[in-house]
Amino acid sequence: MATAAPDGTVLRTVRLATLACDGARTVLDRALDAARRLSGETGRDAGPLLAAGVATFGVVRDDRVLLAPNVPGWEELPLPRLLRDGLAAPAVRLDNDVNAATAAELRWGGLAGTGTGLYVNVGTGLGAGLVADGRVVRGANGAAGEIGYLLRSPGEPGHAAGRAPLEEDVSGGGLARRASVLAGREITARELFGASVPAELRVLRDRALGELAMTIANLAIVLDPERVVLGGGMAAEPALVSRVEGLLDRAAPFPPVLKPAHFGADAALRGALALALDSLSGA
């Protein structure tokens, strides 16, 4: 959580543990209390709060956040209204964390200056942010870029069955779960990219990276972006980067430039700041 000046300069920060087991309302109340304290401390030197941006997991639709099982009860809260009331800011903008990170990359990072771009976040989960006409595309229901739900083969269970086929297969979290089953012990995504990976796990990893690279190349064919930016914990893995670069060159009629994300662990935070600034400018 942070406050910033209108030019994006961070003024103060505070970090909170989510503690999802406490339930959604307690998590929200704790965050709002911290935000009000942070805003008050900043306001003594920098003036009143002008706008607030909030990045959340899930899909923001109307007055609810959907597809957000990580915090019990989060989907039942009228989150946008509660944030507007609780923060008392003249303007409040809420979006999912990947769209927020895309907004940050568009304003300050690897997508700055592009009219059409693609941000792909590959970490514990999987998601994409689409940029067209210099703006982040949210879609009719706020679910544009939810590529974790892409089907991998005809007839496989999808969202209606409570599944996210591509995310389960190629995200860091999905890879770790599949590798743990194969190895008969807990395996982390970090271990899968280490120097001494057993052959059967290396095959699993490399197939997933190939499928992920193919997905990114197909997205680039559909969108025709100027740039593709990779973010998230797996984004810097040379094995992924080389596959994506190779497939973009071979498959896309007009291969885009591939770049690493400018923001790493603080991508969602920077994204929330970008959302607040966008609300001021009407973007």
Automatic annotation (TrEMBL):
InterPro entries: ATPase_NBD, ROK. Belongs to the ROK (NagC/XylR) family. This is ROK family protein. It comes from Actinomadura logoneensis.
